[in-house]
C-alpha cells in the first residue's frame, strides 16, 4: 500500500524528526527460511510469561506502518566439544524503529519487556530466564522479489555491513503483539491456571546482564539471575517459576 501525501504527513506528525523517509516497504512480518519462528502471540505469551518453542530454529522481524517493531529469535548453538549438547536461546523484544536519513534502521526496544530464555541442558537442569534489552542498528536494508523463491524478501545488513540471513514476507499486515509496554511481571498472576501453590510471580530485576547479546557483538555475561524454569514433557512449552 502506498501512503498518500496527506496520510504520510499525518503519520509523520507523530514520529521523530529522524524518520523522514518512507518505511512502507518494510511493513509486514518477515521470517527466515524455515518460516516457523514468527513474531506474535504464537511465540511469546506475555500474560503467562511463556514461550512456545518453534519447530525449527529461525528468526523473525515485524515492522508496523506506525514505527513499531517486534522480533523473535530461536537459535540452537552448536557445542563443538560435545555435539550432543547444543544450547538453545530464545529471545523476544519489541519497541520502536526509525529509518535514519543515511538509510540505517535503528531499533530501540522497550527495555522492561524483552525476554530471553537460555537453556544448556547438559550443564544445568533449569533454563535461565531473564529480561532481554538490546538496541540494534542495521546499516541498510533492501526489499525485493526473490527471483528463486518468488517471494518478497528482506535483506538486513548489520551495523558492520554483514548481511543477516535472508528474511521472507510471511504476513502483511504484520502479526504482532500489542506495541505498547507489556511488562506483565509487575502485575499479579492472572488466575494462575498453570501455577501451583508454590509458584509466585514477581518482577524480573532490571539490572541483570543477559547471557548473549547480538549487537554490537555477541557477548557473554559473567553474571546472571537464576530462575527455576522447567520444560514440560515434550519441551514444547516452557514455563518459569521461582
Ligand atoms: C547512519 O546514521 C546513524 C544514526 O545517526 C549512525 O549511528 C550510523 O553510524 C550511520 N551509518 C553510517 C553507515 O554512516
Ligand atoms: C537497555 O539497554 C540500553 C542500551 O542498549 C541501556 O542504555 C539501558 O539502560 C537498558 N535498560 C535497562 C532497563 O536495562
Ligand atoms: C511470482 O509471484 C507473482 C505473485 O506474487 C505471480 O504473479 C507470478 O506469476 C509469479 N512468478 C512465477 C515465475 O511464478
Ligand atoms: C509462512 O507461514 C505462514 C503461517 O503459517 C504462512 O501464512 C505463510 O504463507 C508462510 N510463508 C511462506 C513463504 O511459506
Automatic annotation (TrEMBL):
This is Protein ROT1. Coiled coil: none annotated. The chain crosses the membrane at residues 224-241. GO terms for biological process: 'de novo' protein folding. It comes from Polyplosphaeria fusca. Required for normal levels of the cell wall 1,6-beta-glucan. Involved in a protein folding machinery chaperoning proteins acting in various physiological processes including cell wall synthesis and lysis of autophagic bodies. PANTHER family: PROTEIN ROT1. The keyword Nucleotidyltransferase does not apply. Belongs to the ROT1 family. Its main location: endoplasmic reticulum. Residues 1-18 form the signal peptide. It is found in: Endoplasmic reticulum membrane. One of its GO terms (cellular component) is endoplasmic reticulum membrane. One of its GO terms (molecular function) is unfolded protein binding. Keywords: Endoplasmic reticulum, Membrane, Signal, Transmembrane, Transmembrane helix. It is a single-pass type I membrane protein.
